[in-house]
Amino acid sequence: xxxFLMSPAVYSFVRxxxxxxAFLVFIVGSAYRIYVMISTVKKEKLVLPYMSLRYSxxxxxxxxxxxxxxxxxxxxxxxxxxxxFHICLVFTPIFLLSHNILWHESWGISWWTLPESLAxxxxxxxxxxxxxxxFRRIIASEVRFVTYPSDFLILAIAFLPFLTGFxxxxxxxxxxxxxxxxHILFGAIMxxxxxxxxxxxxxxxxxxxxxxxxxxxxxxxxxxx
Amino acid sequence: xxxxxxxxxxxxxxVLDAGLDETIKKLTPEKIEQVIKKALEKMGPGRLKTMVxxxxxxxxxxxxxxxxxxxxxxxxxxxxxxxxQTMWPILKNKGRVSPEFIRRAAEIxxxxxxxxxxxxxxxPFGIDMAYIILSVRRICHLLGVTPLYLQDxxxxxxxxxxxxxxxxxxxxxxxxxxxxxTRGEIKNPxxxxxxxxxxxxxxxxxPEPKFQAHLMGQAAVIMNVAGIDWTYPSFDGWDxxxxxxxxxxxxxxxxxxxxxxxxAMKLKVKKIVMGECGxxxxxxxxVGNRWLGLRMPPVPVIHAIQFYYELLREGRIKIKKKFDKPxxxxxxxxxxRGRGLHEMARYxxxxxxxxxxxxxPNKEYNFCCNAGGGVINCGPPWTKKRVISxxxxxxxxxxxxxxxVITPCHNCHSGIEDVIKYYKLGMHTKFFSQIIVEVMxxxxxxxx
Lengths: 225, 448
Prior knowledge:
The complex is a heterodimer. Chain A has one domain: Fumarate Reductase Cytochrome B subunit, CATH 1.20.950. In chain A, 78% of the residues lie in helices and 0% in strands. Chain A has helices at residues 2-6, 8-44, 53-64, 70-74, 76-94, 97-107, 116-139, 141-144, 149-170, 176-193, 201-219. In chain A, α3 crosses α11 and α5 (76-94) crosses α7. By secondary structure, chain B is mainly alpha-helical. In chain B, the strands form two sheets. In chain B, strands 2-1-3-4 form a four-stranded parallel beta sheet. Chain B has a four-stranded parallel beta sheet with strand order 6-5-7-8, sandwiched between helices. In chain B, β3 (271-274), α16 and β4 (301-303) form a beta-alpha-beta unit. In chain B, α7 packs across α9 (129-142). Chains A and B meet through α2, α4, α8 and α11 of A and α3, α5 and α8 of B.
């Protein structure tokens, strides 16, 4: 098994076609989900006429700024963990030196990169945030009551690429080649899972926020944050 | 797969309601599936599905809910938990659920959620849980599973176009009787009926002529003293209330709203002013108009809070001596979170009362009365559950130390009075209009 994982054949598959498939599914799948969502909502006729750009932005801004809403202020620990988790989850892979080297090798493009020690810390933040969310799901009764196995699955999907990436970078536990292959595999799974799971909240969340912001701002004349 | 939900024994015991218990006996999973599929198709599941799929099950909405806080943080009362026990299985099983599941879903949707939308303000994604629960009610209505008392008011709307089975002769008689009563308060008052081209059509809820007619008398005093050009219609459409909206009967809701708007248009009035009612405002300003395909109401609609605010600001009514007992103010969700009238409500309160004490939290963050959303209209079987599930309101009011709670909404008014009684707070609820009549200056020409 380990030998198979380490084999160059696996590497050339995950480094080549799998990455293409992953990005394709992620981008095309998400675009399709957005298209279907907007066209079914359009049919309802009760949503789009009430959308307001000004109040959408007002609402989104209050919620993407840490402690910008009443509920963020009520839960300081969750707010800090949630913000750190999402920021590190999104930006670490994009600005990681090793990833930049990969697309520089493939297409000759690259951009600004994070210092490696900082990227290391950001990866650890994601890992420990996942542990935090895992225990919150088990310990907090109001969360436990609405937790399904799929919630743990989503958490694992976010957790594994970062764990394997961290271990690969430090060359711990498994031989480097095997860990890198696993890392790419889990990364691909994460991208592919976006349009098929509730990770879609990374896309839909902006729309639902904008809708509620518009209704509260334009029709109800009150704050929604 | 049919789902049955286990229910823990609660302080209020098992509540019997023929509207739920008897009606589910006629249902089968096949029938339920058929009805739900059609309902979802007609409703257009766009918003519903998007919201359900966006929810990450984080539970951050829990503390927004008065029923969750009041029931010692029982996780089954969190807003997301209510959706979990109703809409998630319905969507997941594509409508194939058991009659017992529908019984439980109806109980949650009609008696554990007031559609107050406080949770939408606390959800990071702004998921509109009230909309989801209202969709559950729509499904329950189409299945014929609605609390008996609530269904009776919906029947009344269907038959009489008002909530309380008031017949037209009773209505006209009440107007004339109140005009007579008002003669004991001021000189030569009139209650104009069918005055075409008046500035204002004043509208009330069904229960006012039925058993709170004195409120109509008080409104007449205010209107006459302020010199308002106003009128009531003698015909259907005088009632602005709308329990069909809450039972899930959109068709009746549409008929009732159309009658109301048409009454105003027939009388060629400039605007509708409505009494101190919250849900009626929601149905005219937010929900009913949309069902009729109207983006906004076709005739401007002003809630009593705004009307009194304008009267006081313009000096059309003057205050003789401010109300001297300490008061606190309950912000009704449908006109505060639903229309942002909180600052006007404070202006009015300060103009009328000497000692105004804020509840905390307040304004758009205020806790619901747990009576609105049709919950109080589910009737006596559910009263105990309703007051036990609003302990936070009792604590919030008690902390102000004020003996009077101003509640500019009928459901809040009755619901909070129940909470006060149950928790023995020794307080009383009052409408703005009651205080205005008490403290206003009566000009010479109206003095008896």
